[in-house]
Predict the 3D structure of the following.
Amino acid sequence: MLRPSLTAAVLFAATFLAITSLGRPAVARAEEPKKLVPSISEIMVEAHGCRTAYIKQVRTELAKDDPDWLLVETKSRDLVRVGKLLALNTPPKGSRESWDRTTGLYVARATVLVDAAERKDKEEASLTARRITMMCASCHRDHRNW
Ligand code: HEC
């Protein structure tokens, strides 16, 4: 037999659980299926967040006398991947045609960046990295609600 205080505690907990789970639709408790394509927001936070932005890491390296070319190449490949994932999304604003064109250009420029990194071509890489950075504002103007 449980001690009275423990019994009370167990009862209390059971009641609490019963009450808090009342009124919640069953689906809310079912596990969400894993999404195959991350949302635009998730991609932006991962790839373009202020502190970790891939393109920023690339440009920091390219500003050095002796860039870490492996890092530049790796991050450029990440940008290609990110661009392809963006293309699979639907933007909150703007036409499909414009989105396809813009994400296509993003992937194309990231591919040029990978190629320049493989050849350790600093001039080409720096120019392309600048062009990609300029796409942030123009894409937001056309496809972001704020
Ligand atoms: C191909 C178009 C496109 C490009 C290029 C792009 N963005 Fe975005 N970004 C968006 C869209 C669309 C949203 C809004 C997403 C939403 O509201 O669902 C967004 C949202 C964001 C957010 C907010 C994320 C959040 O929800 O918290 C940040 C930060 C951001 N972008 C940074 C950048 C930076 C930095 C660059 C350039 C390196 C960039 N973006 C390039 C389309 C783009």
Summary: Residues 96-118 form the longest helix (23 residues).
